[in-house]
Amino acid sequence: MNTKRVFLRQLLAVSTAFLALAGSVAHAEDEAPDVMIKRLSTDVLETIKNDKAIRAGDMAKVIALVDSRIMPSVNFQRMTASAVGPAWRQATPEQQKRLQEEFKTLLVRTYAGALAQVTDQTISMKPLRAAPEDKEVLVRSEIKGSGDTIQLDYRLEKTPGQGTGWRIYNLNVLGVWLVETYRSQFAQEINAKGVDGLIATLTERNKNNGKKV
């Protein structure tokens, strides 16, 4: 399969995955995780199809959407910590804050352009294999449209407290886990330049990506 085509499909899938969380964060705490993913994914596909600004990659609008509606439904600290790996525990609170900020910006800027690819896609859910008492689950789905079917899986955790419900901490696109992919990239930077070096690299990459949109 053409490498560029696979990359574009991965961008589309991850964009849809993150924006799928934008439908509503005020969901019932006892809502099943697969039901939540199905509902939010369907909502966001319709939102993207009907919003020309988002489909055109309007960064201001996408970033505002992420900050106000997506992040409350993602355990982004866990996602960032997992991507950074063992060095996260040695990082200072300020370094951890910077890493989260730059990682979020990287994801948003990297995948915003793929939103324009959304056309006739729909979400198909696979049976959930989980017990009622499970605190972490794997939700499997597929994005179907005129092109090839895209595998898209989510790892979610049940967060304690009133009204918190399920939160996503990793994504699998076409058999590749997002966190593990970035962990291998980040490890090279950390081994060569340390945590501050990784922050500097992410900052520079985000600046360059920002010039392209």
Mean pLDDT reading: 80
In CATH, what is the homologous superfamily? Tgt2/MlaC
User: What is the domain tally?
Assistant: 1
CATH-derived architecture: Roll
What is the number of helices?
A: 8
Rg value: 17 Å
Low-confidence stretches: 22-26
Tell me the strand percentage band: 15-25%
Kindly identify the CATH topology.
Nuclear Transport Factor 2, Chain: A
Helix content class: 55-70%
- End-to-end separation in angstroms reads 28 Å
The total count of strands amounts to: 5
Content-based structural category: alpha+beta
Largest sheet, described in full? 5 strands, antiparallel
Element-by-element helix/strand order: HHHHHHHEEEEEH
Please state the overall shape, judged from the principal axes of the Cα atoms.
globular
**Would you state the CATH class?**
Alpha Beta
Largest sheet strand order: 1-2-3-4-5
Task: Kindly list the characteristics that best describe this protein.
15% strand; alpha+beta; 5 strands; five-stranded antiparallel beta sheet; 8 helices
Question: How would you characterize the overall build of this protein?
Answer:
By secondary structure, this protein is of the alpha+beta class. The chain has one domain (3-212): Roll (Nuclear Transport Factor 2, Chain: A). Helix content is 56%, strand content 15%. The chain is built from 8 helices and 5 strands. Strands 1-2-3-4-5 form a 5-stranded antiparallel beta sheet. A hairpin with a 2-residue loop joins strand 4 (166-173) and strand 5 (176-177). The longest helix has 35 residues, at 178-212. It is globular and about 45 Å long. The protein starts with a helix and ends with a helix. The model is unreliable at 22-26 (pLDDT under 50).
